[in-house]
Design goal:
About 30% of the residues lie in helices and about 25% in strands. It has about 375 residues and is α/β, with parallel strands linked by helices. The longest helix has 22 residues. It has 3 domains: about 240 residues, Rossmann fold (3-Layer(aba) Sandwich), CATH 3.40.50; about 70 residues, Sandwich (Immunoglobulin-like), CATH 2.60.40; about 35 residues, no CATH class. It has a 5-stranded parallel sheet with strand order 2-1-3-4-5, with helices on both faces. The chain has a 4-stranded antiparallel sheet with strand order 9-8-11-12, with no helix packed on it.
């Protein structure tokens, strides 16, 4: 009964359109342990979304091995994927700059080239992994930054983000979601007994992070979680993944259209907050458009106007929009009567028609209804 009530609490407050994504996962045991792609698929199904997926995940494989792996290359070319996820061997991105520059960056470039040759419409997404529970003891002496979990995690964060921004790719920040979970509750063990691979908790958190990164929707409210995870823990992991990704889409270079604006009467200053885009188009809702990054616009009339920012990436194969409605109120100008007044008649102060006399006051009647009292002195 308690679980049923909790599920009702999970019902999302917002309704999103259903989506279908086709994703190829390239990696190794960090991906295939607990079948991460299927966990993402099951989370998606609870929201009416569809994830079609395939994998190339030989144990211990690194980027260099994948760049020359015929099966990996064949799977990249087998169809036009929405995303190709790239996961390195768990240690290689965190190693010394000399090693990474010589062995990792060139392999990443080769994989990106293969993806782009297959289709410019595919979005690469780097799988930011997690540091080992007690750091990397085997590489601690030659490269001290990896001696601890936090040190290794920071190196992974820096390198995976570098991969993403260099290649205009997205990054699924799984490692940062792990870091947040460990900070909140270190008793929840995300690691398997080898202190490297994920436990079911770690894989479920990774799956929630991937769902959010791929669909740009919160996993909070999903009714799917593995049987070995209780509902309260599942909810907490969903919340961590949602906050980690959606609060920082630009940090992870996830393709997204977004903007803010400052209004000063009829003049609006727009700030483009979109990330990982090739081009944008603004529609101000009054028939005017702009391709400026941060435009200013002045409205000529009053009313409610819907502004739409459309962002394009990957040869315009991927499109995202963000909208906002503003209200403009321009006071009507008071038109002054610029016509000359015409004198109709003059009278004395008793109302008798007469010609104006010197010294004596007279009343002047005009065609606009005004009356003036004048005295001719000379």
């Amino acid at each position: 009964m308690k679980k049923f009530l909790l599920v009702l609490f999970f019902i999302p407050l917002f309704v999103y359109s259903q989506q279908k994504k086709e994703v190829l996962f390239i990696g190794n045991s960090y991906t295939y342990v607990n079948d991460l792609p299927t966990l993402v698929e099951q989370i998606a199904l609870t929201f009416g979304d569809t994830l079609i997926h395939d994998s190339s995940t030989p144990g211990g494989a690194n980027f260099s091995m994948h760049s020359a792996n015929s099966q990996t290359i064949s799977k990249i070319n087998q169809q036009q994927w929405d995303y190709v996820v790239l996961q390195a061997q768990s240690q290689e991105p965190s190693l010394s700059p000399g090693y990474v520059n010589t062995n990792v960056y060139p392999a990443v470039q080769t994989l990106i080239d293969i993806i782009e040759q297959s289709s410019l419409c595919i979005e690469p997404m780097f799988f930011m992994t997690w540091g080992r529970k007690y750091g990397d003891a085997g590489n601690c002496v030659p490269w001290p930054p990896v001696c601890t979990y936090l040190g290794m995690q920071e190196q992974l964060r820096l390198r995976y983000l570098d991969f993403a921004f260099i290649h205009n790719a997205s990054c699924a920040p799984v490692g940062m979601a792990w870091k947040q979970s460990i900070a909140q509750d270190s008793a929840l063990n995300l690691f398997s007994p080898d202190n490297s691979h994920p436990s079911i908790y770690g894989s479920y958190l990774a799956a929630c992070t991937f769902y959010t990164s791929i669909f740009k929707k919160s996993p909070i409210g999903s009714s799917f979680w593995p049987n070995s995870i209780d509902s309260i823990t599942a909810y907490n992991l969903q919340q961590i993944a949602s906050n980690t990704v959606l609060d920082s889409l630009t940090v992870w270079n996830i393709f997204n259209a977004d903007f803010t604006f400052v209004q000063n009467n009829d003049s609006i200053s727009f700030s483009n907050l979109s990330s990982n885009f090739d081009s944008i188009v603004w529609n101000f809702g009054d028939g005017n458009t702009s391709t400026s990054i941060h435009p200013n616009h002045i409205y000529s009339g009053s009313g409610n106007f819907t502004i739409t920012l459309t962002a394009y990436t990957n040869s315009a194969c991927q499109i995202d929009t963000s909208t906002a409605t503003i209200s403009i109120s321009i006071p009507s100008a008071i038109k002054e009567n610029t016509k000359d007044k015409i004198l109709i008649r003059t009278t004395d102060i008793q109302g008798r028609n007469c010609m104006p006399f010197k010294i004596f006051p007279s009343l002047y009647f005009y065609n606009d209804g005004t009356v003036e009292k004048k005295v001719i002195l000379e």
